[in-house]
Amino acid sequence: MYLNCHSYHSLRYGTLSVQNLVEQASELGIKTLVLSDINTVTAIYDFKKECEKKGIKPIAGIEVRKENRLLYIAIAKEFSGIGEVNKILTEHNCDGVELSETAPNYNQVFVIYPIQNIPETLKENEFIGIREEELNLLIRPEFKDKINKMVVLQPITFSTKKEYNLHRILRAIDGNTLISKLSEDEICRKSEHFKPEINLIKSFEQYLAIINNTKKILAECSFEFDFKKVRNKQSYTKSKKTDVKMLSRLAYLGLKKRYGSNHEEAKKRVEKELKVIDDLNFCSYFLITWDIVRYSNRMGFMHVGRGSGANSIVSYCLGITDICPIELDLYFERFLNLNRKSPPDFDIDWSWQNRDDILMYIFKRYGKDYVAFCGTNVEFKYKSIFREVGKAFGLPKEELDDLAEKPMENHDRNSIVKLVHQYGKLMEKFPNQRSMHACGILISEEPITNFTALEMPPKGFPIAQFDMDVAEDMRLEKLDILSQRGLGTINDTVELIKKNRGIEIDIRDTSISKDESVCNEYLAIGKTIGCFYIESPAMRGLLRRLKCDNYRTLVAASSIIRPGVAQSGMMREYIFRHNHPNQFEYFHPVFEENLKETYGIMVYQEDVIKIAQYFGGLSHADGDILRRAMSGKERSIQKLNEVKVNFFESCKKEGHSEQMTTEAFRQIQSFAGYSFCKAHSASYAVESYQSLYLKVYYPLEFMVSVINNQGGFYRTEVYIHEARMSGADVQNPCVNNSEYQTILKGKEIYLGFMVLQSLETKIAQIISEEREKNGDYKSLENFIKRIPIGIETIQTLIFIGAFRFTGKPKNELLVEARLLLINYKIENRSIALFDEPANDFKLPELKREQFEDAFDEVEIIGFPVSCSPFDLLQTKFRGNVFVKDLLKFHKSQVKMLAYLISRKHVPTKKGAMFFGTWVDVNGDYFDTAHFPDSLEKYQFQGGGCYLLLGTVEVDYHFPTITIHKMAKMPMIPDPRYAYDKEKQYDVHKQIREDVSMTSRKPYPQAHEINLPRQKFN
């Protein structure tokens, strides 16, 4: 009897999860159920699985609405019917085709119209839905002859009075209005909840035709779907047979290129992998990925193939990845094995500048009907929940800000706020909107609308209505097409070196992108600012603690920095064992045999699987569950407990004591959700090394590229500082030298117009284009004639020094600009055939103070360029100790003056603490620790210079200063406002700092880790 059930995937309408909906139906003994969410099929696949668990027959449908008005309910007779409705919705969502008031000619769909939208004539497959409360309307003449085409319509939207109120709140949020202003048409009826089926039939007992029609629809519909059938594109060539031939040919060509003609080990491994790939029908998957990479190479783009795909020698030979799995002992089974229940995926990164080109190629090459992005469900988040619910109740903006920004315990406790809390909690985990998966692309064998309607987000690529987990359940596996700025930096640096120096660098040449002596020296001292993945304070500290001077240690470091390894205490233990390899014994011989490279510590996902199998005796299938548990998918982590039972039983059979088993599983469990596979770490390490090589040998080109790719961990100021430390002469933007992006001329770096946030991108581009076409600007007047620009923008350019080539002071240029702009209207500006000489304005001499330029720079770009922040301090004191000497002061108290670069919030058992990163007056970096007791009295007060008093702690070659006291040092007053005392310190507030907030658990101390350093008996 239930032809129209909504889950909460009817966004901002339904209040029931799929599980709740099915659970309630099961409790009432309902045997058949139709899920018809509004304009979406997001939940139908989970719905089918949930129903079958409860012995309920599932039927799939869609409620078609236009501008919040119900047109009809479409119920699929069989699965192909869903595809018919998907196609109509896709045309509407992606091509703007209007939804018609009546249903088109569906073949495998029953259509049910509400009583408010009955067409003149009903087709054979079309019916009218009549609600229980509408039965009294059937006495009307216009309905009497239609009773034989009616069905019971009992929509389900909520289950309790509280949920009905929640539905109204969701509707208010959807309409951006108050609950009190909702009309009846905007909300569901109070009857839209489950009732015992017998009561419903009793209400309709005078109309047997209506009951029979309803039963007929439920009987004739089915939802057959084989979750085991692979739905990815099945062949790259015309057939699977020719796919196998092509993949083999490409693999052996690549084998010769990578290893030469006589590498037997590599050859055997290629043969073994090709057989598994063929047995599992993955040839097309490899070939499609190879095809995309081939296009990328043809276009001159740089890519990185990472993740578990780098475990495959075939992917290495095809050029998909650049990691030799033999060199690093990476085993293929981590990527693909006959016991794997789900297919793997390749993770491939491109520069953020090139990714859209790659996506366009995929959609064009494989057909827009067969390609889509995975969707994601964006849930209501803490801040948005309270803000949105509060807005629906009519709270003013100030209260909404308080609700969003303050912790719950600090909220006002009035009656409305209590309701906001009550309903806000109910909305946790509710989907709020559908969005695009960051990188997952689906390439289907059948038209993708067979499975889902598509939506078109602002970015311009169609998205499926389900997420990656549902796609995986359906065997519609994604390709991960990712982007990152690190590759853009590497690519741009190589291009800049070629342009400036005429040197061509093959950055993929492993002889220069691994184990290069000077690079290793930089690694060991953490001199890695700007380098992909290894520039953060935490990573630089780790590199120094490890004295990391080789590629293999860098691979390990890339993994042990991850939260799972660090929070379990394994990172600290790894550092100890790396520095003291003779001061520990292996926990058990299996650990020594399989984890010798990492000192008996599980660092990679592969290590966990090895221990599970060789120590615990687990099967490959259980090993695969462990792999999935460690991939961070919540549904897999829940399965970890199943493995635990098997692990303990198996360990008992292996003869291990319960104490030993408990300790081994504790180490395994600590990894769930956060560890890297070794190939992933290795791929990251190669890219880190590539960027480090460029930083070492071409530092100015590298830093310019970092700035143009909008940096990484730090703000632009830090990369400019780094360039200056490498010998650059950094210049402010100049209309006769600068481009939109930052450029390098010899050792001079001209900052790009992009650093001027108030300058329109279009104007910035016109300035350089006009200069290229018609030559340098001769004067301010000449510039104003040629560029359509207003006084505010001219002022910004003058204040930043962009007209310094004129030799005139800024004050004089400002007066001149105002006089000129009186005479020149934008529409009349152009270069005259015979350009008249510029007017020579005779103005009184206007003097400027020494540091006025620096304060102009702070105001416009956030930091000084023409001097150091230390030059702007009132004090001449620069500290008693400098970074270069810190290692000599272990356990000593020091007083230092430093400029704040960044700070990271870290929770501890005693409250919040911070780690700070600073530079001293010599420009060298150092780190500080600020514990809760110190922060209580001496808090951070924004960007700027501070006087620090603390004790130096040298931890494995890495000095950190534990701060006891600190004070922000006053800067000189802004000389531009010498006659306006109120404004003399306004611009100081614009000095920036980088703040990162984390909510991770505190890392354990050495005594808390308690990892055995002796062999267990």
TrEMBL record:
EC numbers on record: 2.7.7.7
Protein name listed in UniProt: DNA-directed DNA polymerase
Upper classification of the organism: Bacteria, Pseudomonadati, Bacteroidota, Flavobacteriia, Flavobacteriales
Known catalytic reactions: DNA(n) + a 2'-deoxyribonucleoside 5'-triphosphate = DNA(n+1) + diphosphate
GO terms classed as biological process: DNA replication
PANTHER family with a match to the protein in the record: DNA POLYMERASE III SUBUNIT ALPHA
Region feature (Disordered): 997-1017
SUPFAM superfamilies in UniProt: PHP domain-like (SSF89550)
Short name of one Pfam family: HHH_6
Keyword tags: DNA replication, DNA-directed DNA polymerase, Nucleotidyltransferase, Transferase
Domain (Polymerase/histidinol phosphatase N-terminal): residue spans on this chain: 1-68
Species annotation: Epilithonimonas lactis
Alphabetical list of Gene3D superfamilies matching this protein: 1.10.150.870, Metal-dependent hydrolases
Molecular-function GO term, any one: 3'-5' exonuclease activity
